[in-house]
Amino acid sequence: MVSWHNIETDTIQISGNGGDQIDAYLAQPKGQGPFPGVFVIHHMPGWDEWTREVVNKFALHGYIAISPNLHHRIGPGSLDDVVAAVRAEGGTPDAQFVGDFNAGVDHIRSLDNHNGKIGCIGFCSGGRQAYIAASKATYLDAAVDCWGGRVMMKETELTERMPTAPFDMTSDIKVPLLGLFGNEDEAPSPEEVNLTEQELQKHGKAYEFHRYDGAGHGFFAAHRTSYCIEQALDGWQKVFTFYEKHLS
Amino acid sequence: MCTYITEKAQIDGSGKGTQGWFPLTEARVYYDHPHHTMADHTLNIDFVNNEMGIGARVAVELTEESARSLIEKIEDALEAAGKESSSIS
User: Fold this and answer.
1) For chain B, what is the mean pLDDT?
2) Coil, strand, or helix at residue A199?
């Protein structure tokens, strides 16, 4: 039985990678808790309204949720101009993401109402970053990868910003991993998801993957044509069940 | 798709953005998720000036069909103006 929490929200600044002050959207239940924490990694379309809705959703369910603006350093501008600029530069550097991730986690861990457990969830490019966090984060207890493309990367796709495929970090994964994927998706394709699963099995990692027929990429996004209601409702249930198990 | 595959062309010309006309230096072309068009993926073109900040951008999102049609019409317009055809077919 779910009981909804009253929540409070704020946009704060945290000291991210390299000491850069970056904005972060924070939502948490009112009260002393203690509550588990979730780092919401925003998707490629940016630090947008839908990301804030997801952060609020976790707070309603009793989680302290934070989502830093991983594109903050681009500077002021409209959301799509910022995202286009990030894209033109080749995306957020993986090392920078890890620094910002650890900073966001540190903020949750500093709060008096935190229960000591931290999860992360990433969508799209954020799913890829969740996979990275599962191996590189300083503190983390569980990770959720929602249709993260480019976990597998060809040699020719590696760049200075993304020098290592997350797939090749699998042996370093330290936390249970939940993966949600649409079988109609092309990035990642079902074949790539299968190969990633095999790699997790090879290294004896704790994971669960769920694949959805009739769903492509981004099927949680209710404001997009990719939204698939049945698959999304089931997927969210999987997320909360997973977090209940690992973040209590 | 969520790829970072972006084709870039250095261009000469002008674009009209939210602040009026400005000179263009680059066109960035990629097939990926749109911001506005109701489609999973579109052919996106950003006409930008790299020296004028991230807001100096005229953005276009087209369906694949529309993008291919546009390629044809660009060639047709140039040919109608007496310009020689390029290698684009």
Assistant:
1) 91
2) helix
Which among A226, A234, A181, A233 has a CA at the least distance from the CA of A207?
A181
- What is the arithmetic mean of pLDDT over A221-247? 96
A-B C-beta contacts closer than 8 Å: 64
Q: Where exactly are the structural domains of chain A? A: 7-246
Q: A83 to chain B: which residues are within 8 Å by CB? A: 35
Tell if the CB–CB gap between B55 and A125 is shorter than 8 Å: no
The answer to whether the beta carbons of residues B28 and B7 sit under 8 Å apart is yes
Of B2, B8, B59, the CB nearest to A124: B2
Contact between chains at A217 and B1 (C-beta distance less than 8 A): yes
Nearest residue in chain B measured CA to CA from A48: B35
Distance CA A225, CA A233 (A): 16
**CA contacts within 13 A on the Cβ side of A185:** 32
Question: In angstroms, what CA-CA distances link A115 with A111, A136, A235, A248, B43?
Answer: 9, 22, 25, 8, 46
Query: According to CATH, what is the number of the domain A7-246?
Result: 3.40.50.1820
Give 3-state DSSP helix, strand, coil % of chain A, rounded to 5. 40, 25, 40
pLDDT tens profile B53-89? 999 999 999 999 999 999 999 999 999 999 876 655 4
Q: d(Cα A80, Cα A87) in Å, to the nearest integer?
A: 10
Total residue count of chain A as it appears in this document: 248
Structure tokens at A183: 């079988």
With beta carbons under 8 A apart, name residues in chain B contacting A85.
Answer: 54
Cβ within 8 Å, pair A80-B35: yes
Q: Within 13 A of B79's CA, how many CA atoms are on the CB side?
A: 11
CA distance B35 to chain A (A): 7
